[in-house]
Design goal:
The chain is α+β, with helices and mostly antiparallel strands. The protein folds into 2 domains: 145 residues, Winged helix-like DNA-binding domain superfamily/Winged helix DNA-binding domain (Arc Repressor Mutant, subunit A, Orthogonal Bundle), CATH 1.10.10.10; 74 residues, Roll (SH3 type barrels). The strands form 2 sheets. A 6-stranded antiparallel β-sheet has the order 3-8-4-5-6-7. A two-stranded antiparallel ribbon has the order 1-2. β6 and β7 form a beta hairpin. α1 packs across α4. The longest helix is centred in the middle third of the chain and has 23 residues. It starts with 9 loop residues before the first helix and ends with a strand.
Amino acid sequence: MNKNSSFIRESYGDYLKAIYILALDETPVSTSSLAKEMKVSNASASDMIRRLSKENYADHLPYKGVSLTTKGEKIALSLLRRHRLWEVFLKNTLKIPSENVHQYAELLEHVTDDSLEEYLDAFLGYPEKDPHGCPIPRKDGTVASIPQCRLSELKEGQQAEIIQFREEEPSLLKYLYDVGIELGTNVKIEKKISYDNSLQLQIDGKSICLGEKITTTLIVKLL
């Protein structure tokens, strides 16, 4: 296997990906947000931020947070591309349930070189999105823009189509599938409960209630 510049320490790569994804909602990314995403202590996250900054993968702004340098973003997008391509392969070719592909893609992305990535992309027919509706970064490092309207932002009476799952936690995805929410599912907001911002939804003639913790992770397109 021919190694290339995107082969760095696995732990570095995982942090760079996490910073990139968190930065879609929060810039710079706070240490506490990064620690929560990586399931580590704030001290561990701070230590990694210092190491990434020292090697010019990230810029650390004291008391504010961290952002990726051009060098760090390039690595993050490369790993994210490979991760999402593998998710498509695992779902479409091996028929692994969508809620389980993330964990396997995490392993495969780190042992994929440029050549294998090209073969995989061609084999899959150059997909643009992963099984969760997230855009697959292009080979040139660009990423298709997807409107980031969250289900939690909708008002009573509005209808929308689910187009992306921002959270890939297997237990959450399984729950959503079990209650009938998949990519392409149409939902209508029946009621917004002000006490806790939960939503009562109508899906295929039945009503379900989802809490704000879940509705903020669902990206929708208004109908």
